[in-house]
TrEMBL record, chain A:
Chain ranges passing through the membrane: 20-43, 79-102, 114-133, 145-166, 187-212, 261-280
Protein's organism: Nonomuraea maritima
Protein name: Putative aldouronate transport system permease protein
Residues covered by the ABC transmembrane type-1 domain: 79-274
Keywords: Cell membrane, Membrane, Transmembrane, Transmembrane helix, Transport
Similarity comment: Belongs to the binding-protein-dependent transport system permease family.
From TrEMBL, chain B:
Protein name per Swiss-Prot or TrEMBL: Putative aldouronate transport system substrate-binding protein
Plastid listed as a keyword: no
InterPro entries linked to this entry: TAT_signal (IPR006311)
UniProt KW keywords: Signal
Signal peptide residues on this chain, from the entry's feature table: 1-28
Domain of life (superkingdom): Bacteria
Originating organism: Nonomuraea maritima
PROSITE patterns registered for this protein in UniProt: PROKAR_LIPOPROTEIN (PS51257), TAT (PS51318)
Skewed-composition ranges (Gly residues): 34-45
Chain residue ranges for the region called Disordered: 34-64
Automatic annotation (TrEMBL), chain C:
GO BP terms, alphabetized: transmembrane transport
Gene3D superfamilies according to UniProt: MetI-like
Coiled-coil positions: none
UniProt membrane topology term: Multi-pass membrane protein
PROSITE patterns xref list: ABC_TM1
Domain of life: Bacteria
Keywords, comma-separated and alphabetical: Cell membrane, Membrane, Transmembrane, Transmembrane helix, Transport
Cell compartment(s), UniProt: Cell membrane
Gene Ontology cellular component terms for the protein in this record: plasma membrane
Protein family per UniProt: Belongs to the binding-protein-dependent transport system permease family.
Spans traversing the lipid bilayer: 36-63, 101-123, 135-155, 195-216, 228-246, 288-309
This protein's name: Putative aldouronate transport system permease protein
A Pfam family the protein falls into: BPD_transp_1
Length: 295, 544, 324
C-alpha cells in the first residue's frame, strides 16, 4: 500500500536509496543496545565472563534469569501496581493538562495572563524534596497510591505544549461552533479534543512514561514494600550488584549471572511501553484537519 | 550464615560506589574505613557524664574449628552447627508491633502472609515485626525526609558508612540514652550483647553515652586478591615482599594482546599502606592531630601509583567503568585481571566459587620492612530506639537485639540464618542448606541490625578457603594500624567531610591517571587543609 | 505567527473578534470566562499544593538547615550559603562547564529530532515509517548506567574498537577518558539516547499542518525542498521555538546521572557541572541549605534566560511561551 498524496511527485530513486540507507543506519545504531540487552539476559556466566560483561550474540540460550526474577519475588505484584498507577495517573494527569491548556489558551480571557504566569513560573523553580514530602504527609497521602499520582500530575511543560497546539487550531472552527451557540465545554468536546488527538497522544505518552518510570515518589512516600511499583523493585535488583552472591552458596544450584538478571529486568520494564506505543503512533501521524472538517 | 551477611554488606557498599561514582568509589572503598565514619566522643557539651563502655564477656558459642582472637581474627567453622546451645531463655517480645527501619541490599522481602521466615521470627520473638526497608542507594534520600517529617519508626538501624549528618546531635534529640542499661556490668543482663567487642560498641558511643547497639564488622579494611593460576602461569611470585617485587609481579602478568592486566581499579590505599602512610590521622605526643595527607610518604605513594599506571599494568578501562563491580569481578574470574583490591567482605564472593584458585596478598613494607594494615571501623550499623522513658519497652528492645546478636552456631542464630526447615532450608548430610525461598525471605534484613563478631564459614567454597583468610588475618593482626580519630567527633568532618574527601579523591585520581603531576597534590592538600582539614584537626584534638 | 508571503496563511490572525471587545464589565467577563477558570482550577490547585507552598521551604537557602531541628529550630545564616558557593572556584568551573554543555547540546542535539522528524515524514511507505518510528524512541528507556556501560563496551579502552586496533598493532583511541572531547562524548550519548524520543513532538507538529497547504504549494510549482522550506518549517516553527525556549529554561540542568557516572574518568575539571557540584557539596554531606541555594540560583538564571528568549521570539514575530 502506498499513501503518497497525489500532490507529492515521485521522488528520484537515488533519494529513496539515500533515505533508506540513512534510516537503516539509524535503526541499526538504535537496535544494537537492545540486542545486547536481550542477548545478555539469556547468556550464560561463562559467555559473560569471556566477553567482559555484556554479550552481543548469545551462543546458548538460557531463561534462568527470567525465572530468577519471577521466582518468589515481588516483581509480578509490582507490575500490576505499576500498570494501575500509570493508567489512573495518566488519565487524571491528562485531564488536568488538557483542561488547563484550553483554559489558558484564550488570550483575552479573565486572569489569563496571571494564571499563565503562575503555571510558567513552576517551570523554573522546583521545590526541595523535604518540603514536598512534608506536604504529602500533611495531606495524609503517605503510604497511599495517591502520593504517586497527584503530586506529579501537573507539569507546566505539558500544559504549555498542549496549549501551543490548541492555539494553532484555525479560529474559524471556534467561531463556527460559537455561532451554533456552543459553550466552552462543548467547544472543548467538539472542537479542541478532535483536533488535538496528535498532541494528546504525545503528551499522554510523556505522562505515562513519567508515571511508569517514577521510583523517587514511591521511595519517599511508601514505607510498605508490598505497595512498591516495578521501577523501585527493579532498582533494588539493578543497583544490587551482587544479586546472586548468596545464591551461589547453594550446592547444586547455579544462579543466573547478575548481568543477565539486570538485563532481563530492563527487557521486562520496557515491554509494556513497547506495547502501548503503536497505538499512539496511529494518532500521531493523523492529519488533524481531515478529522476536524468532517466533525 | 554469618559470613554471608558480612559479604552482602560491605560488598554492596562497594557496589554503591560502583553504581554511583565508578571511580571515586574506589578510594572510598579502599579501606572500608577511609571515607566513612560516624561520630563518637565529645563535641557537644550538653551530654551527661561520659560512661564506661559495656563490659565484654565472652559469649556462649560452639567451639570453632580455628579459634579467633580478641584483636579481631575471626573464628572459622566448618559448617553451621546443627545442635548449637540455646542462649536466650524466657520471653523476648510482648506481642506488640516492632516498627523498625532497616537499610537493605536485596529485593524487598515477600509479604508476611507468604513469608514463613518472617512468621517464624514473629513467633520466636513474640512480636509483630513491621520493617521499613530502605534500599541502600537511597538511604541518604529517605532518611532525612523521615527525620524532617518526624516519621522515623520506633526502632532505627543506621548504617555507619552512610555517615548520617550530625548523628550525635540527632541521637541526643530523638533517641534514648541506653547507658543505664548497657554501660559497664549492666550489659550482663543481655549476655549476647555483652559478647560484642569494644570496636563495635565505639560506633554507638556518642557524646560519651551509649545510644546504639552495633552490628560488628571485621576490623580489617581492604585486601588484594590474587589470581594465583594466572600469576603462576606468568612465572611470577604472588606474594611480593617489597615494592620492586610488587612492580615485577605487575609487569610479569600484564599481557595487553591477551587482554590480561595486573589491576583494574585504584590501589591507592594499598600503596599508601605499603609506604607506611598512617590511617587517616596521627595523634602526636602533644595531643595535636596531623592528617595522613601531610605525611611524608603520602605524595611518593601516589607518585608510585601514577608510575605503575603509566607503565601499563592497569586495565585500559580503569578510568571508567572498571569500578563497576560486576564487570570487574567478571574480569577477575575469567583471568583478565590478575589482582583485585576490594573490601574484606568481598572475600565471601571469591570464596564461594569452587573453581577459583586465589590467594590474599600479605601486607609488606616498601623496602621489605615493617608493613602496616589500616583498620576498618568495626561496625556496619547501629540500632537505636526513639526517645522513651518506658523502661519495659527499652528492656524489650534490648532483649530483641540480644536474641538477634546470638553468636554464630547458637540456636537463635540458626533461626535467624535458616528459618523454617523444609521451606527455607533443607538438611543434606547433616548440613543445613538454604533454599532460594529462604534467601528471598531473609531479605527482611533483621539479621543486619545487631550482632557480635563475624565468622568465616564457606563450606561451599574451595576446600581450605577459610583457613587461607584465617592465616592472613593471623599475620596481619600484628600490623594493624588504627585511625586515632576514628570515634572522635568533628563537626567539620560531619558536615563537610564528604565534600572535602571528594576533593582529595579527585586530586589523587588526576595524578593516578596522569592528568596532573604528583607535585599538584601539594596544592590540593593545602586547599583541603584550609577548606576544613585544619579545622578537623583542631576539633579532634579538643574531642574527648 | 510569521507567515510566508508567497503562500496562504497557515492561520488567520490570532486575535479573535469576540475577544478583542475590551472594556467588558468585570462581572460579565467573569460570567463569560467562568468555564475556563473552572478548567484551570485543578491544575492551579495541584501546583499550589505541591509546588508553591513547598517552595516556601526554600527559605532554607538562608539557613543551616538540620532536618531534625526543622524550619523553626535551624539557624539563620543570611547569605552564607550563597557566598560559600560564589567563593568556590570549583563552583564557577562547574557553571562554566554546564554552560558549555548546554550550548553544545542546543547547537548539536536540538536540531537532530527536528531533522529526523522531517525525514520520517517524507517516508511514504507506512510500514517502514511505523517501524522506524517505533524503533528510534527505544533507547530513551534505557537507564544511563546501561548506556554508559554499552558505550564502554564498544569505545572503551578495552572495548571492541580498541581491542581491534590493538590486535592489529595500531595505537588505541582514548575516547571514554579524554577530558578534551568529553563534552562531545556527552552530547553524542544524549543524541543517541533521546533524539528519537524527541521526534515525537515534532511529528505531532507536522501532523497538525494543513495538507491543503502542500497541495497549494505543489500547484504553485514548489519542489520537495521548497515545500519543506515554505510549508513544513513554518508550520513547525511555533513548536520549535517553544521547545527551544523550554530547553533554555532548563539550561543549567544537564544530565546529572549521565555525568555522575563518567565524571571521575575525566576529572572534575572537564566534567563537573552544577548538579554534580551541588550533589558533592550539598546533598552528600546533608547541607540542605547549600543545595537549596544552588537550586534557587538555577531558577533565577532560568527565569532570566526564558524572559530574554521569549522577548527575542516576539521580536521575530513568534508566539513564544506566552505573550504580554
Amino acid at each position: 500500500m502506498n499513501t503518497r498524496p497525489v500532490w507529492l511527485g515521485k521522488p528520484r530513486p537515488i533519494a529513496i536509496a539515500l533515505k533508506a540507507l540513512a534510516l537503516t543506519l539509524i535503526c541499526a545504531v538504535v537496535v544494537f543496545p537492545f540486542l545486547v540487552v536481550i542477548s545478555t539476559s539469556i547468556a550464560t556466566q561463562q559467555q559473560i565472563d569471556a566477553n567482559g560483561g555484556y554479550v552481543i550474540w548469545p551462543t546458548s540460550v538460557s531463561f534462568e534469569a527470567y525465572k530468577e526474577i519471577f521466582n518468589g519475588t515481588q516483581v509480578s505484584r509490582s507490575i500490576v501496581i505499576s500498570v494501575g498507577v500509570t493508567a489512573v495517573g495518566t488519565a487524571f494527569s491528562l485531564a488536568c493538562t488538557v483542561l488547563a491548556a484550553y483554559g489558558l489558551s484564550r488570550r483575552q480571557s479573565l486572569f489569563q495572563r496571571g494564571l499563565l504566569s503562575f503555571v510558567l513560573f513552576t517551570l523554573l523553580f522546583a521545590p526541595g524534596m523535604i518540603p514536598v514530602y512534608l506536604m504529602v504527609k500533611q495531606l495524609g497521602m503517605l503510604n497511599t497510591y495517591w502520593s504517586l499520582i497527584i503530586p506529579t500530575a501537573v507539569s507546566a511543560f505539558n500544559i504549555v505544549i498542549v496549549r501551543g497546539f490548541i492555539q494553532a487550531i484555525p479560529h474559524e472552527l471556534f467561531d463556527a461552533a460559537r455561532m451554533d451557540g456552543a459553550g466552552e465545554w462543548r467547544i472543548l468536546r467538539s472542537v479542541v479534543l478532535p483536533n488535538s488527538k496528535a498532541v494528546i497522544a504525545v503528551v499522554g505518552l510523556f505522562i505515562a512514561v513519567g508515571y511508569w518510570n517514577n521510583y523517587f515518589g514511591p521511595l519517599l512516600y511508601l514505607n510498605d514494600t508490598e505497595m512498591w511499583p516495578l521501577q523501585l523493585v527493579m532498582r533494588t535488583f539493578v543497583l544490587d550488584n551482587n544479586v546472586t552472591t548468596n545464591a551461589q552458596a547453594i550446592p547444586g544450584y547455579v544462579a543466573p549471572p547478575a548481568q543477565s538478571v539486570q538485563m532481563a529486568l530492563v527487557a521486562i520494564a520496557t515491554l509494556p511501553i513497547l506495547c502501548v506505543y503503536p497505538f499512539l503512533t496511529k494518532h500521531m501521524s493523523k492529519g488533524m484537519l481531515t478529522g476536524a472538517i468532517k466533525g | 550464615m554469618s559470613s554471608r551477611i558480612s559479604r552482602r554488606s560491605l560488598l554492596r557498599s562497594a557496589g554503591l560506589a560502583a553504581a554511583l561514582a565508578p571511580f571515586g568509589g574506589a578510594l572510598a572503598a579502599c579501606g572500608s574505613g577511609s571515607g566513612t565514619r560516624s561520630a563518637g566522643g565529645g563535641g557537644s557539651a550538653s551530654a551527661g557524664q561520659a560512661v564506661p563502655l559495656p563490659t565484654y564477656v565472652p559469649p556462649n558459642k560452639p567451639k570453632p574449628l580455628y579459634e579467633g582472637t580478641a584483636q579481631g581474627v575471626m573464628d572459622v567453622y566448618e559448617s553451621f552447627p546443627m545442635d548449637g546451645p540455646k542462649t536466650v531463655t524466657g520471653p523476648v517480645g510482648d506481642g506488640t508491633d516492632f516498627n523498625v527501619m532497616i537499610m537493605t541490599y536485596g529485593q524487598p522481602a515477600p509479604p508476611l502472609e507468604e513469608n514463613v521466615y518472617w512468621q517464624l521470627l514473629n513467633k520466636e520473638l513474640n512480636l509483630n515485626i513491621k520493617p521499613v526497608q530502605v534500599p541502600f542507594a537511597d538511604f541518604q534520600t529517605k532518611f532525612p525526609a523521615l527525620v524532617a517529617g518526624d516519621d522515623l519508626p520506633e526502632f532505627v538501624s543506621v548504617p555507619i558508612f552512610q555517615n548520617v549528618s550530625r548523628l550525635p546531635q540527632l541521637a541526643e534529640a530523638q533517641f534514648t540514652d541506653l547507658s543505664e542499661y548497657l554501660s559497664g556490668d549492666a550489659v550482663k543482663k543481655y549476655p549476647n550483647l555483652a559478647g560484642i567487642q569494644e570496636a563495635g560498641w565505639l560506633n554507638g558511643y556518642l557524646n560519651g553515652r551509649i545510644y546504639g547497639v552495633p552490628r560488628s564488622d571485621p576490623i580489617f579494611s581492604t585486601q588484594i586478591y590474587t589470581k594465583t593460576d594466572v600469576i603462576e602461569a606468568a612465572g611470577a611470585n604472588p606474594q611480593p615482599k617489597n615494592l620492586q617485587e610488587f612492580r615485577d609481579l605487575a609487569k610479569a602478568v600484564t599481557d595487553p594482546k591477551a587482554g590480561v592486566y595486573a589491576f583494574g581499579g585504584n590501589i591507592a590505599g594499598f600503596l599508601q599502606m605499603m609506604f607506611g602512610v598512617p590511617n587517616k590521622w596521627t595523634r602526636k605526643s602533644d595531643g595535636t592531630f596531623v592528617s595522613a595527607y601531610e605525611h611524608e610518604a603520602f605524595i611518593p605513594a601516589i607518585a608510585e601509583l601514577a608510575a605503575l599506571y603509566k607503565s601499563g599494568v592497569f586495565h585500559p578501562d580503569t578510568a571508567t567503568l572498571i569500578e563497576n563491580k560486576v564487570q570487574r569481578d567478571a574480569l577477575f574470574r575469567s583471568g583478565k585481571l590478575a589482582m583485585v583490591h576490594d573490601g574484606n567482605r568481598a572475600f565471601g564472593i571469591v570464596a564461594d566459587d569452587r573453581e577459583l584458585v586465589f590467594d590474599i596478598m600479605l601486607p609488606f613494607g616498601k623496602d621489605g620492612g615493617d608493613a602496616v594494615h589500616w583498620t576498618g571501623n568495626g561496625a556496619y550499623a547501629i540500632t537505636m530506639i526513639k526517645k522513651t522513658t518506658d523502661k519495659k519497652r527499652i528492656d524489650m528492645f534490648l532483649k530483641v537485639l540480644d536474641y538477634i546478636s546470638a553468636p554464630f552456631g547458637t540456636r537463635e542464630s540458626f533461626v535467624i540464618n535458616y528459618g523454617v526447615e523444609g521451606e527455607d532450608y533443607t538438611v543434606k548430610d547433616g548440613v543445613a542448606v538454604l533454599t532460594t525461598r529462604g534467601q528471598r525471605e531473609q531479605d527482611l534484613g533483621m539479621a543486619y541490625i545487631a550482632g557480635g563478631p563475624q565468622v568465616l564459614c564457606n563450606p561451599q567454597g574451595t576446600p581450605g578457603v577459610d583457613k587461607l583468610n584465617y592465616d592472613w588475618q593471623q599475620k596481619v593482626v600484628s600490623t594493624l594500624l588504627p585511625n586515632p580519630a576514628e570515634h572522635l567527633y568533628s563537626q567539620t568532618y560531619n558536615t563537610k567531610g564528604a565534600a572535602l574527601q571528594k576533593q582529595m579523591d579527585d586530586a589523587v585520581v588526576a595524578v593516578f591517571l596522569g592528568r596532573e603531576p604528583a607535585s599538584s597534590l601539594t596544592a590540593a592538600i593545602q586547599k583541603w587543609k584550609s577548606g576544613g582539614g585544619d579545622q578537623m584537626a583542631r576539633e579532634y584534638a579538643q574531642a574527648r | 505567527m510569521a507567515v510566508n508571503q508567497t503562500l496562504p496563511r497557515v492561520n488567520p490572525p490570532p486575535e479573535n473578534k469576540l475577544h478583542t471587545q475590551r472594556k467588558m464589565p468585570f462581572l460579565t467577563k467573569l460570567w463569560r470566562d467562568s468555564p475556563l477558570l473552572v478548567m484551570v482550577a485543578p491544575a492551579v490547585l495541584i501546583l499550589l499544593l505541591f509546588t508553591y507552598i513547598p517552595l516556601l521551604g526554600s527559605v532554607i537557602a538562608f539557613m543551616d538547615y538540620v532536618p531534625f531541628l526543622g524550619f523553626t529550630g535551624s539557624e539563620w545564616v543570611g547569605w552564607a550559603n550563597f557566598s560559600s558557593l560564589f567563593s568556590d572556584t570549583a563552583f564557577w568551573n562547574a557553571l562554566w562547564n554546564t554552560a558549555q554543555i548546554t550550548l553544545l547540546q542546543i547547537v548539536l542535539f536540538f536540531p537532530v529530532p527536528i531533522l529526523l522528524a522531517v525525514l520520517l515524514n517524507t517516508v511514504a511507505m507506512p510500514m517502514a515509517k511505523r517501524f522506524v518510528q517505533s524503533v528510534i524512541y527505544l533507547p530513551h528507556f534505557l537507564s544511563w548506567v546501561i548506556i554508559v556501560a554499552l558505550f564502554q563496551q564498544v569505545l572503551g579502552g578495552n572495548g571492541v574498537l580498541n581491542r581491534f586496533l590493538l590486535t592489529h598493532d595500531m595505537s588505541p583511541f582514548e575516547i571514554m577518558s579524554n577530558p578534551d572531547t568529553f563534552k562531545l562524548l556527552l552530547t553524542t550519548q544524549a543524541i543517541w539516547k533521546d533524539a528519537g524520543w524527541g521526534t515525537i513532538i515534532f511529528l505531532a507538529a507536522i501532523a497538525a499542518i494543513n495538507p491543503g497547504l502542500y497541495e497549494a504549494a505543489t500547484i504553485d510549482g514548489a519542489g520537495a525542498w521548497q515545500r519543506f522550506w515554505h510549508v513544513t518549517l513554518p508550520g513547525m516553527r511555533p513548536i520549535i521555538v517553544l521547545m527551544l525556549i523550554l530547553r533554555l529554561g532548563d539550561s543549567l540542568t544537564v544530565g546529572f546521572e549521565q555525568i555522575l557516572l563518567q565524571r571521575d574518568a575525566v576529572g572534575p575539571g572537564a566534567a563537573e557541572v552544577l548538579d554534580t557540584f551541588t550533589y558533592f557539596n550539598g546533598v552528600v554531606d546533608g547541607s540542605w541549605g547549600t543545595a537549596t541555594a544552588a537550586g534557587l540560583l538555577k531558577g533565577v538564571v532560568s527565569l532570566l534566560l526564558v524572559l530574554a528568549a521569549n522577548k527575542l521570539a516576539h521580536r521575530l514575530g513568534e508566539e513564544g511561551v506566552y505573550r504580554r
